[in-house]
Specification:
InterPro entries: CYB561/CYBRD1-like, Cyt_b561/ferric_Rdtase_TM. It is found in: Membrane. By secondary structure, this protein is mainly alpha-helical. Helices cover 79% and strands 3% of the residues. The longest helix is centred in the last third of the chain and has 39 residues. It is globular, with a radius of gyration of 20 Å. The C terminus is likely disordered.
Length: 234
């Protein structure tokens, strides 16, 4: 039996603290500064969808998918249990991401009118890659007909593309924050040195930090100390 080393535990706690900070900041921005998300239709329904987009994409997609990546580092139990939880969390993140994109494209303007910026292009590419990655992961690691050699050959690519897609999701969120804040400041709706600007900038920094920590934990060697060794040293 083994336990997580102190350094690995510290990284996991730091990742959780970063995720908690990001969650608080995006909730504060969406719920306390609702007027910044007010659509041109002034419809209450459209406002709800506008508020749901950052919440679903940051909390539902980035935070949950990040937690799914960390599962293999902290969850005790069998390998199959870890893979099951990982796949379930990634599926939940995928559902949140798809619904989050739909909240933007469902309006009267349609898909084409909203599909013009780098943020929107990267978002659709990211979600397409994430969906394909989830499907390949399901087929490769859960289909009983797959031979072991095939799974071993696919694993490095699955890990690489998973981390790449997660990093792309963080970068896409950053472009969205920049696009939104620039628009609000240009229209004079938000002060450049105001509270809302500070919250959005803090959210961007928090996402960058979170993404780095999650990827670092994922690529770090699994430093686990056998329990028997600890007992012997004592």
């Amino acid at each position: 039996m083994a336990i997580i080393s102190f350094s690995a535990l510290s990284l996991l706690l730091f990742a959780r603290l970063s995720a908690f900070t990001v969650g608080i900041l995006v909730l504060t921005w969406a719920l306390h500064f609702k007027t910044s998300f007010l659509p041109h239709t002034h419809s209450q329904e459209d406002l709800i969808y506008a508020l749901l987009h950052p919440l679903l994409m940051v909390i539902g997609f980035i935070l949950i998918s990040g937690e799914a990546i960390l599962v293999h580092r902290w969850l005790p139990g069998s390998r199959n249990l870890k893979k099951s939880v990982h796949l379930s969390l990634q599926g939940l993140a995928l559902a949140c991401g798809v619904f989050g994109i739909w909240t933007i494209f469902h309006g009267q303007d349609g898909i084409v009118a909203n599909f013009y910026s780098l943020h929107s292009w990267m978002g659709l590419i990211c979600m397409s890659m994430f969906g394909a990655q989830w499907l390949v992961g399901f087929v490769s690691f859960w289909h009983k007909g797959e031979v072991r050699t095939t799974r071993v050959r696919v694993l490095p690519w699955h890990v690489f593309l998973g981390l790449y897609t997660y990093g792309l999701a963080v970068v896409t969120a950053e472009t969205g924050l920049l696009e939104k804040l620039t628009f609000l400041q240009t229209k004079g709706k938000v002060l450049k040195r105001g509270t809302e600007s500070a919250i959005v900038n803090g959210l961007g920094l928090g996402l960058a930090l979170l993404g780095g920590v999650v990827i670092l934990v994922a690529v770090s060697p699994k430093h686990q100390i056998p329990k028997s060794k600890i007992m012997y040293s004592n």
